[in-house]
Amino acid sequence: MKKYLRTKILVYVLTFIFAVTIDWLIPRLMPGNPILVLVSRFSGLPESARVMYSYLTKAFGLDQPLWKQYFNFWIAFLKGDLGISIYLYPKPVLDVLKSALPYSLGILLPSILASWFAGNSIGALAARRRRLDSILLPIMYFINGAPYLWLGIILAYYFGVVLRWFPIAGAYSFGLRPHLSWLFVGNFLKHWILPFLSLFIVQLGGWAIGMRNMVIYELESNYSRFLETLGVKNSLIRKYAFRNAILPQITGLALQLGTVIAGQVTTEVVFSYPGIGYILTQAILNQDYFLIQGCFIFIIIGVLIANFTVDLVYVALDPRIRYSYGGEIS
Amino acid sequence: MLEVRNLKLYYRTLRGYVRAVDDVTFQVRDGELLGLAGESGCGKSTLGNGLVLLKPPMNFVGGEVQLDGEKLPIEDYERMRDYRFKKVSIIPQYAMDALNPTRKIGRYIEEILESRGINFESVRETLIERLRLVNLPERVLRMYPIELSGGMKQRMVMVISTLLNPSLLIADEVTSALDVSTQKAVCLMIRNFKELGIVKSIIFITHDISVLYQIADRIMIMYAGKIAEVGKTAQIIQNPLHPYTKMLLTSLPEVGVRYTERMLSGIPGQPPQLLEPPKGCRFKERCPLRDKVCDKDPPLVEIEEDHVAYCWKVKPNA
Ligand SMILES: Nc1ncnc2c1ncn2[C@@H]1O[C@H](COP(=O)(O)OP(=O)(O)OP(=O)(O)O)[C@@H](O)[C@H]1O
Ligand code: SF4
Ligand SMILES: [Mg+2]
């Protein structure tokens, strides 16, 4: 078990280094020059622009050879410094991301968890009731097949534009400052509900279908059949089937949670919700090396943590996996 | 004592009924081990499963089953529930993955018993004794199925299905997945269960007739959903009369030598489709003695006491 953990951790560390290196490299291979973008923003005399250009290039360390930039990057990274945003100059990248993170989490965590619970319940129910299944299954397939962008826009249009129940942009009204009051919380929730709902719905179908199929598969498996030959109550057979069917769903959940940090780019763009996904698109549009890098580092960390959790959870839940990793499983 | 009369079990498929067990009549007496042999696909498992767990796509089409003088309601899934495990049990053909992979075996048994309203403690001693009987250490109860070898899992299933001393045990192909050395041990264990009175009678299903020589009291040969011949083990081996049985036995390379697929190649031709079986004798296409009469259903011929065959060309020992 210990050996298993050690190898896993090593693999994850290597993966992290590799992924971050690529993440560092990619923006630098993109066409265009971010400093030019920045300079053009402060536009002015061509003369001062040139001075500014060379100053900023130096300040961001972009005049140095690549290997040195790479080296500096890791040193800074280990100090918790992800650089300065070019597009939101002079805000540090870490601060930008830190203030965006709660918005992403606030939408994604609840929507993933809620759709997971609801989807699994619906799926398990459908697996048991033939009649219900024939109604639910097509609905779930429809939901699952609906492109998210389309769904998001429909929701925004219908509830935001036609019914005018909910606002369709931002995390709270422009006039407000974040603070703790009923007014603000209410306003925040109003902005929150549509992006939440869109993500909830779009994920629901997948969970439900997955769970339904898994439960049916388990109910038809040999161990269920053997239980039947022993004349046990249906409740016991269902209990076993459910428990075994939920295992892959738990893996799926953990993997989904890994994307939490990444935010859901589409959601955040459709509803102009200021999470990491939104920041990422802005960063890309503005060729903000450091911000792009920072976003991806967050995403990488999120995905790796999620995968690691999956590994641990699975080992804890499934004796078969434990066994395949050698020895003691009791 | 099990009595089966005119039992018909068909599978409902999109293309029609598959007549896997078609008008089968036989009995298994108390203290008897009946060997059931025949080529793959002849309906052995269907017959065995049908007596315990009859559910779609398998359909009950007709017949009657009595166990210990009482009607066994095999066609009624719910009413049959009470009889399963307590009166009839099966070691299924899929015994290797019959256990729940995510439950420790002891806990699993406990939950099964609880579900049947039986207190675990009241059978704990029996359970431990039975484990000893099949050479399993007591600690398997604290293990997960994956920690057991295939043979161990099978013996575990054997212990579980016989835990409540059912009247009838059906053992479906318990030897086919094992290597030759363990085959014999398992066969003797099963027979031993009967000798010790744990179960009253056994139907031992196999497609390898040679396994039956040492353990069966009587042998029943099935062909394409029907019975071909039934008799005492000695009668079948020394004096097979149905052409199919004869060919089955002569196609054996040597007594005791394991064969599986070779048996099929030993008899030219293929068993008929059970979707639309031929009229009359189902063996006629492969039978050297085939005659015009064989287009009609072959009669039951009682050759001598306990020895019967379904064939036009078999004559009773007058
Ligand atoms: N679920 C099913 N649906 C339709 N036909 C089936 C089904 N199960 C079995 N059959 C058919 O019924 C016939 C008898 O099958 P069965 O499993 O009883 O044979 P068997 O004698 O046990 O063979 P084996 O030695 O391979 O186990 C076969 O022709 C098979 O194709
Ligand atoms: S009834 Fe006819 S075809 Fe069938 S086994 Fe006997 S002789 Fe052969
Ligand atoms: Mg079979």
From TrEMBL, chain B:
Short name of one Pfam family: ABC_tran
GO molecular function: ATP binding; ATP hydrolysis activity
Span of domain ABC transporter: 4-249
InterPro entries in alphabetical order: AAA+_ATPase, ABC_transporter-like_ATP-bd, ABC_transporter-like_CS, Oligopep_ABC_C, P-loop_NTPase
Keywords: ATP-binding, Nucleotide-binding, Transport
Matches recorded under CDD domains: ABC_NikE_OppD_transporters
UniProt record, GO biological process: peptide transport
Source domain of life: Bacteria
Name listed for the protein in its UniProt record: ABC transporter ATP-binding protein
